Amino acid sequence: MTKHAASALKLPRPDQSYASYLGLPAVYVKGARKSFGEREVLGGVDLLINKGEVVSIIGPSGAGKSTLLRCLTLLDRFDEGSLAYGSVMVAKAGDDGSAIYHEEAMQQARMRFGIVFQSFNLFPHLTVMQNVTDAPIVVQGRDREEVSQEARELLRRLDLTEHADKVPCELSGGQQQRAAIARALCMRPQIIYFDEATSALDPKLTADMHTLIRELAQDGMAVGIVTHEMGFAREVSDRVAFLFEGAIVEEGAPEEVIGNPKDERTRAFLANSLD
Prior knowledge:
Mean pLDDT: 89
Radius of gyration: 18 Å
Order of helices and strands: HEEEHEEEHEHHHEHEHEEHH
C-alpha cells in the first residue's frame, strides 16, 4: 500500500444510527472483571474510546489484553461490569455487580465494530473479493451490487485491485492484512480494533499502517489497538493504556505513559520492552 493510497482512504458512510450517539463514547467499559476458574484475568477495568480517537492497549504477556479484546468484540463475556457501544448498552452491572447481557443489544453492537485479527482469519477458500463482500451481503442483508461496488473501491484504495480474485494463500502477509482491513471496513463499522496491527509488517508497511489508522481516526472512526510495539503505539495513538495483571494502572498521552511513565510497573515493563 503506497502512502498516497493510504492518505486517500475515506470511510464508507456510517449508518443512520451513528447520529444517535454523537457526544457519547464510542466504547464504554466500566468495572469489567473476568475470571477463568480461580484465576482473575481482568480485575475492574475502566476504558473509554471516543469517536475519532486512537487508543492503544499495551502490557506484558498475561496481563489480560487478549481477554479484554475478546470481551470487547463479544467473543467472550465479562463476568462483572458494564459495556456500551455509543447509545447501545450491551451489558449492565446488576445489583450484585454481575454483567447482564442483552441479546438484541449484542446484535446491534456487532454491526458497529470491526476487528482485524493478528492471524487475519480470512476464509482460505474464498477470493479476496468474496472475503470482503460475504458478511455485508449475508449478515447485513445489503444489496449485492452496492456492496461489490464499495468493495472494489476499498480494494483500489488499499492497492489490492489486482489481487481481488486471488485466495489468501496467494497473498503476502501485508496483502492479507490489507484484505482483512477491507473486509472490516466494508461492514461500515464505527469502531475498529486491531490485534497486533504491525506484527507481520516490515518498516515500510508499518509506516503505511500508521498513515491508514490516522486517516480512519480523522474520518471519525474510533480505533482500539492491542500491541507490543511501543514505537508504533507512541506514534499512532492519542492515548495509551497500560494493562498490568488485569488492571489499567496508567493511562494518558503516549508521551506521558511511554515517554515519562509515573508508575513503577510501567517503567519496569518499558525498560524490558525497549531494550
